[in-house]
Design a protein that fits this description.
Mean pLDDT of chain B: 96
Strand order of the largest sheet of chain A: 1-2
Radius of gyration of chain A: 25 Å
Order of helices and strands of chain A: HHHHHHHHHHHHHHHHHHEHHHEEE
Oligomer: heterodimer
Distance between the termini of chain B: 46 Å
Largest sheet of chain B: 5 strands, parallel
Structural class of chain A: mainly alpha
Number of strands of chain A: 4
Radius of gyration of chain B: 23 Å
Number of strands of chain B: 25
Chain lengths: 528, 437
């Protein structure tokens, strides 16, 4: 028998799955915009950088819009993933590898070799690509551009243009349209414009929607100093940042699940949902991948927590009482939070029915270990929590997690491993929100009685690699730490089986008992 | 004890899994079609490039070994019921209990040319491979038979830009099941997708191109339509030919009682290939759908593991997707309301969404829901029908049945308005979406 599993590897892509003329023209227009950037990168000096940047961004935007309209508008509204597994770019073909390599290389330049992008060294003026962005940066914040300004601008353009494409594709689904407008708004307003305007007013850079531990430098000495040195506004930013992680995000996650952040607000999520949408099906759905995911993401969370504690301890040790908060406050505060969490775990077991005992003991063990280190340092009067200078810890975290994982692998590997590699395996913020979502949230995906036909579209298009079908075909609620609530499973389901829902009705029973087609004494019924 | 199951579709596999949950018996599942269980309803998505074939398999390969369900890839020639032995081309296998879950085959009504190359149905994995192999130079296809598989096949070809002529014998698409408004809605939508829908059109013959391949069809009006492929999708019938001329009693399908037992002891039949001797009132003896196959699989597993259980399919439900329009049905929705029945129908101005509720005029009890482009909750509709809830109570609480995604517009009040106009009453909607009953 011929091997049907290899249909997608047939040498010839069926003609209908190739691009139509409008798509080709749109793509060409967008590529022209990219070519202008490449010319700048390779040293072509444009007479009027501002005009050429505008031309380049304009071409990319116009090309993207053109492409999207050509791709979707001539068909009736409806989600069609036609040819996704036949097209070279979206089926891990040569184009996908090429794109992956180019993206990865760009991230490596961005993080570690910005001089090759044209960043002026030792006070010299910018050249190349970065110089092209100088006029825009000057207009917004009054400075010459940095590699981060270039990156932020292109990132925002990508979310806006690909967000438009996403909206055209999913236009029959209001949840998707509204959610995408939200990520576009938060990227443009909160991640790009507002921080730039703050810089222009000589205020500290601040992305109000970003929070520790995604924003892992929040508690570092230079950042705290910068905020404290900036009067009421700086203080507000400091208090806001602490409130975000301790109060605002748990409350919002209780009501809406982690989706309020991960697929509605977050910048990483925003790029994954828009530019990453063509690659969402590439996430690994195997149980094995899930096992790796749990170790990795929680490992990063422990790393981030330990690093932050050590760094903050060092900062407060050096401050010697100059701040309102002292070393003693930190030690007691951290101890208090851990004890409270542990107490909650034991005193409210109804929320933790789905927690494996081994996971519980590992979590308690790690927390205890961190406390032992912290108290040892405190009681000995040492300035080092883990018997070491926090600086290398901080540096390695920034290098391994902050740069290599979230950027290089997180985006560079979109075309090979799907759009949520970072969010699924590495993001410590996602880890915290995920723990809250699994045990302390009203959010879940419910299944519609016995209507599932096990087709597998939900699992295939889950960017987080959740095997949604495994739940749906049993009629079981999906309650998973990693679910970002993008709603695509419910959108692509051909039988209308899945629904995202916030309900307090049975919040401690979620996913406990199967809601499945089962046989009772009275016959076959749908039981709850 | 060795339980042999012929067929690795949803019925056979559900039986195997449920038996394993309840017993330690040896389980062997035999199939000539594929190594692993896959979702038959998802074959279309492989052709359209939404899924890889392995994505249609709900369980990873290690699952079967872990759960000690032996999978045997082989073709069953015949079954020797007297000696409890399954005969393959090479060798044979003994069993203690046998579950027949052999599924269906596509109907062919003796049309001239039906056995030519470039003619096939769409049921098995091999059918899909055939379609794929004919597709590279396919410009136009003719599909014969206006049911659920026909429209799926049309969608598949359209996804690759292949022209489709869709011959439907009836005066409206699937109009022996769908009421006229819904049938018309789907018909409009089919044409919107660029499919050449021909109603009242039948196949007379398939034309040979001289090399044993189909090159055109002739319809009942004598028209010749050139094509490079003919899809035969005029329904399916039980796949039981390999069991004929044995002691097994067979009608159209394998005859079974309410415990899914055949006339031969220790032999059971489930799914598409089974024919109930006494179906429940209002139900058909053969219901070749995914859901009944799954329920039969669970039921027979209980009986085989010491808890004799009668097959009770509960309130009828089904679902499909006509191109972009989702369809759900709960309970009984006749094409025209029967004696003493009334129907309430609302259709959105865009002509792609509708809600229909059928109820008894005298008692007001609801008996069926038909939804197009709107999702309703299975549990809620099922309960309303089982408890014979009066239509006015249903209308007041209609939001409880709404299963559409968040932020979707809600149409319950529009349906209530229709009812009030029809009846002259003033029922008001009390419950909106998202509030559980």
């Amino acid at each position: 028998m011929k091997d049907v599993t290899n249909l997608s590897l047939s040498l010839v892509t069926p003609p209908a799955f190739r691009l139509n003329t409008g798509q080709k023209l749109g793509l060409t227009t967008a590529v022209l915009g990219v070519v202008l950037l490449l010319l700048a990168l390779f040293g072509v000096h444009f007479p009027s950088p501002g005009a050429f940047l505008a031309l380049s961004l304009g071409l990319m935007a116009a090309g993207g819009v053109w492409y999207a309209r050509a791709a979707y508008d001539h068909d009736p509204a409806g989600i069609r993933n036609n040819g996704v597994w036949h097209r070279n770019l979206t089926a891990r073909g040569a184009f996908a590898w090429g794109l992956g390599i180019v993206l990865t290389a760009l991230y490596i330049l961005l993080y570690w070799f910005p001089q090759y992008l044209g960043l002026g060294q030792d006070g010299a003026a910018n050249t190349g690509l970065i110089a092209l962005f100088d006029p825009l940066c000057m207009a917004l914040e009054g400075n010459a551009a940095s590699q981060w300004f270039v990156y932020g601008t292109l990132y925002t353009v990508a979310i806006l243009v690909m967000g438009y494409k996403f909206i055209r594709k999913y236009r029959n689904n209001r949840y998707q349209v509204i959610r995408t407008i939200s990520v576009m708004f938060f990227q443009l307003g909160f991640a790009f414009l507002l921080p730039e305007i703050l810089l222009g007013l000589n205020k500290p850079y601040n992305d109000f929607k970003n929070m520790w531990p995604l924003n892992y430098y929040f508690f570092e000495g230079w950042h705290i100093k910068e905020l404290i040195g900036n009067g009421t506004l700086g203080l507000f930013m400091l208090v806001w940042g602490v409130l975000m992680i301790l109060l605002i995000s748990p409350v919002l996650t209780w009501f809406y699940g982690k989706r309020w952040y991960c697929s509605w607000v977050c910048g990483c999520g925003g790029l994954a949902e828009t530019a990453g949408d063509p690659f969402r099906h590439l996430s690994d759905k195997r149980v094995k991948a899930w096992r790796i995911e749990r170790w990795m993401i929680h490992g990063v969370l422990v790393f981030a927590t330990a690093m932050t504690i050590a760094v903050l301890y060092g900062v407060l040790d050096q401050a010697k009482g100059a701040y309102l908060i002292t070393k003693a406050h930190l030690v007691w505060g951290v101890t208090g939070i851990f004890v409270l969490l542990a107490a909650f775990l034991f005193l409210r077991p109804k929320y933790f029915k789905n927690l494996a005992p081994v996971a519980k003991w590992i979590a308690l063990g790690v927390a205890a270990l961190l406390l032992v280190f912290l108290w040892t340092a405190y009681l000995k009067g040492s300035s080092r929590v883990f018997f070491m200078n926090p600086e290398p810890l901080r540096k390695w975290y920034g290098f391994l997690i902050g740069s290599a994982f979230s950027g290089v692998i997180g985006v560079g590997f979109y075309p090979l491993m799907g759009s949520r590699v970072w969010c699924r395996f590495g993001c410590p913020m996602a880890a915290i929100l995920g723990i809250q979502q699994k045990f302390l949230s009203r959010f879940r995906i419910i299944t519609n009685g016995g209507q599932c036909i096990s087709c597998g579209n939900c699992s295939a298009y889950c960017e987080m690699g959740i095997d949604v079908r495994a739940y749906a075909q049993k009629g079981q609620d999906v309650v998973r730490a990693s679910c970002v609530g993008c709603g695509i499973c419910a959108a692509v389901c051909p039988r209308g089986v899945l629904r995202l829902e916030n309900s307090a009705a049975d919040v401690s029973e979620r996913a406990g008992e199967l809601r499945a087609l089962r046989i009772s004494e009275s016959g076959v019924t749908v039981v709850r | 004890m060795r339980i042999a199951i012929i067929g690795n579709g949803i019925s056979g596999i559900t039986a195997a899994r449920t038996i394993r949950k309840r017993s330690n018996a040896d389980i062997v599942v035999i199939s000539a079609e594929t190594d692993y269980f896959f979702s038959r309803t998802a074959l279309m998505y492989v052709y359209m490039g939404h899924l890889r074939f392995e994505d249609t398999q709900p369980y990873e390969p290690w699952f079967w070994e872990k759960n000690r369900i032996e999978l045997l890839r082989n073709w069953v020639d015949r079954v020797d019921f007297a000696n409890k032995s399954i005969q393959f081309a090479t060798g044979k296998m003994a069993y203690d209990k046998l579950i027949l879950a052999a599924g269906s085959k596509s109907n062919r009504f003796g049309w001239p040319g039906q056995d030519l190359r470039r003619v096939s149905g769409l049921y098995s994995c091999q059918d899909l491979e055939k379609m794929e192999s004919y597709s590279h130079d396919l410009r136009h296809a003719v599909i014969v038979g206006g049911g659920l598989i026909g429209i799926e096949m049309a969608e598949m070809f359209r996804s690759r830009g292949i022209g489709v002529t869709f011959l439907v014998r009836e005066a409206g698409y699937w109009d022996m099941v769908l009421p006229p408004e819904e049938s018309e809605m789907v018909g409009r939508h089919i044409r919107e997708h660029g499919i050449d829908l021909r109603l009242n059109a039948e196949l007379r013959e398939i034309v040979d191109d001289g090399q044993g391949r189909a090159c055109a069809v002739i319809t009942n009006s004598g028209e010749r339509i050139d094509c490079q492929y003919v899809g035969l999708t005029a329904g399916v019938s039980p796949n039981v030919d390999f069991l004929r001329e044995t002691d097994l009693e067979i009608g159209k399908g394998i005859l079974v009682n309410e415990f899914l037992e055949t006339n031969i002891p220790d032999v059971y039949a489930i799914g598409d290939c089974a024919q109930l001797r006494e179906p429940r009132p209002g139900r058909k003896p053969i219901e070749a759908v995914w859901y009944t196959g799954r329920m039969m699989g669970e039921t027979v597993a209980y009986t085989l593991t010491g808890r004799k259980t009668a097959y009770d399919p509960g309130v009828w439900f089904n679902s499909a997707k006509f191109l972009d329009i989702e369809y759900q049905v709960y309970g009984e929705v006749p094409v025209q309301p029967g004696e003493g029945q009334a129907a309430l129908y609302w259709e959105h101005p865009d002509g792609k969404r509708s809600i229909r509720i059928v109820y008894e005029q005298a008692s007001g009890a609801v008996i069926g829901f038909n939804l197009m482009g709107v999702r309703f909750r299975h549990e809620v509709c099922d309960r309303w029908i089982r408890t014979k809830t009066p239509v006015e109570e249903v209308l007041q609480n209609l939001g409880a049945a709404n299963f559409d995604p968040e932020f979707y517009r809600q149409f319950e009040s529009a349906l209530v308005d229709v009812y009030n106009r029809q009846s002259g009453k003033s029922v008001t909607l009390k419950k909106r979406r998202g509030m559980r009953l």
